[in-house]
Amino acid sequence: RVTDRDHDGASYLFGGGDCDDSDPTRYPDAIEIPGNGIDEDCSGADLPLPVEWPLITRPPGANSPALDPEMNLILVTIDTLRTDVGFMGYDKPVTPNLDALAAQSTVFDRAYSMASYTGKSVGPILIGKYPSETDRDGGHFNTYAASNTLITERLKEAGVRTLGAASHWYFVPWSGLTQGMDLWDTSAVPSSGQGDNDTSVTSSELSDAALRLLAAPENTEGRFFMWLHYFDPHEQYMPHDGVPPEVAEDANTPSAQSKAAYDGEVWFTDKHLGRVLDFIQSQPWGKRTAIVVTSDHGEAFDDHSMSWHGFEIWECLVRVPLLVYVPGLLPHHVPVKRSQVDLVPTLLDIMGVSQPEAGELSGRSMMGD
């Protein structure tokens, strides 16, 4: 304090890191303003202006048709789903239903989550801000404060009915993740078995809950938004009947056996998600229902000498599947990097809901993609 001459809380001595002790706007914790030629946060250089997104060439004849003004939206997040899915080039038959949906969708080949574990990634997906910008506590299973505004609240304010379901005990009101929900179904949450050694199997029950919600006329007679969070691909891995034999081929090491068991969980989740997708397709409102599928993070199977998630941000942990199916748009792949921070503004555009004031969201709409 004695040597902090400009009283900004940092000294130029004793490792304080103040690069200009005569200017109280320049110190290590200052907010850096890109492109102004000033190194506010004493990092050693001014942060450059962000590079403009690369242009995406749409498929031939893919003009931008007007979206249905009565569009519905279903967001599916699958816990711990790596990019090992058929529509991203994986050679094992673990996602036939998602592959069929992807063939009609925009597939983002290099999409990234904002954290490598659930508590820090799901909330920001729904809020549209980076984890460090959200109001939350410091727990591993974060509680997000009511001061955050979720996509559900924005859609509900626009007159859209909001509903959803999850199958893990974290996805309850104290988490802050259900703000703005007209209906939130936790019937698929098991009464036990979801501790450190998770032995629960819940994809079937979650799809049952989703089908009940979608079959109720009061939920689908007007515009609706539904969020589903599947959990089975998260460790521990439980066996399932009917898994294709190719999934376990050449699984001769402990790591390969663990990966084969994980792939079986992915197959099982895809199987039951397929029931929901089939039902959507069979309904009159299915022709005006957009579907977005992504994951909160990936997993490591001896990648970088680790077999877990939550502590690092290697590609296997934060690069995730992302497909966006919008009726009327031609399917194609987007090869450049995109972030889940851009999902909320994209979902608002799909639903024809006005974007909030500048500064409320940290991402940009991907509708151009």
Characterise this structure.
- The chain is built from 8 helices and 9 strands.
- Helix 1 packs across helix 6 (254-282) and helix 4 packs parallel to helix 6.
- The chain is globular, with a radius of gyration of 22 Å.
- Strands 1, 2, 3, 4, 5, 6, 7, 8 and 9 form a 9-stranded mixed beta sheet that branches.
- By secondary structure, it is an alpha/beta fold.
Short description:
This protein is an alpha/beta fold. The chain is built from eight helices and nine strands.
Sequence-ordered SSE layout with sheet pairings:
Elements: E1 72-78, H1 96-102, E2 106-112, H2 118-127, H3 151-157, E3 161-166, E4 183-185, H4 203-215, H5 217-220, E5 224-230, H6 254-282, E6 289-295, H7 315-318, E7 319-320, E8 322-325, E9 332-339, H8 343-350
Parallel strand pairs: 1-5, 1-6, 2-9, 3-4, 3-5
Antiparallel strand pairs: 2-7, 2-8, 6-8
Helix pairs in contact: 1-6, 4-6
Rounded radius of gyration (Å): 22 Å
Low-confidence stretches: none
Look at the helices and sheets and give the structural class: alpha/beta
Number of helical regions: 8
According to DSSP, the number of beta strands is 9
Average pLDDT, to the nearest integer?
A: 92
Helical percentage: 10-25%
Order of helices and strands: EHEHHEEHHEHEHEEEH
Main sheet, how many strands, which sense, barrel?
A: 9 strands, mixed
Q: Report the principal-axis shape.
A: globular
What is the straight-line distance between the termini? Answer: 51 Å
What fraction strand?
5-15%
Tag the structure with descriptive keywords.
8 helices, alpha/beta, 369 residues
